Input
Amino acid sequence: MNCKSIVKEISNYLEEALDPSLKTSIEKHLENCEDCRVVVDTTRQTIQIFCNSEPAPLPEDTRVRLRDALFKHLNKLRTGPRV
Amino acid sequence: MSASKLNPLQPRTPLPSQVVKDDEGALVAAAKAGDINAFETLVGRYERKIFRLAQNITQNKEDAEDVMQEAFLKSYQHLGEFQGNSRFYTWLVRIAVNQALMKLRKRRPNQVSLDEEVDTGEDTMPREVEDWGPSPEERYKQAELGGILSSTIAELEPPFRIVFQLRDIEELSTEETAEALGLSVPAVKSRLLRARLKLRQKLNRYFRQGENS
Ligand SMILES: [Zn+2]
Output
């Protein structure tokens, strides 16, 4: 396998969605190719950093407007439309 | 630089989902039965994530606010149709994504075709190959890291950033992502690979070894 074909399989490799023989040949390549090791490792980190990141708290004005909109509509839905 | 601490052969550890709590099903059932407080608990639990999702897709605060409000209202109105064969959160994400795509298309009608053939060619190949320094999560404060991530994802074109958002941030499966966006599974996979590689490349400038925060 060459470096280019490793890159094409990165997602499948990281998601462990490869058949065993392909996985073995990728790992053989990784043992001998530092560049590909770095690419695989930093791609893995990229996914993990995004996946683990906590969303910021809502801006206060955004929060207030969301609550207002919900109260208005939920109460209307609960009591049914006025005739 | 030492290559020894690189450990690409180690399998990716499954990430604990930060989203689903055990009582989600009970809250949804209560909300279905008309308990508004239960629904408000669900809103409080997911509002930050839905707002971030909407912002990442629309890239516009006002639109993101509208999307979030519409998504929660729609989910309440259609709660009776929610079958419970997927997570409530996954269902909510799909509603929010639809709303967000409508906003995005309204603002940029010529730019947002998710299903058009995208070039998955040569520029995907990694150019700068440098090891990253110590864990970025240790090097940056949470808010600072959040800023880096949102500005980095903003640089991707919509077809890539939306697929990445659903798959790697909201943790939908490939099939769920394909269904939510009306794409084929291979199309999701190729966009996702490209998005991951592009983001890796862009994050390099913050996280590479020797880079001072
Ligand atoms: Zn290689």
In short: The domain at 3-79 of chain A is CATH 1.10.10 (Arc Repressor Mutant, subunit A). The interface with chain B takes residues 4, 7-8, 10-11, 14-16, 27, 30, 34-35, 37-58, 62-63, 65-66, 69-70, 73-74, 77-78 of chain A (CB under 8 Å).
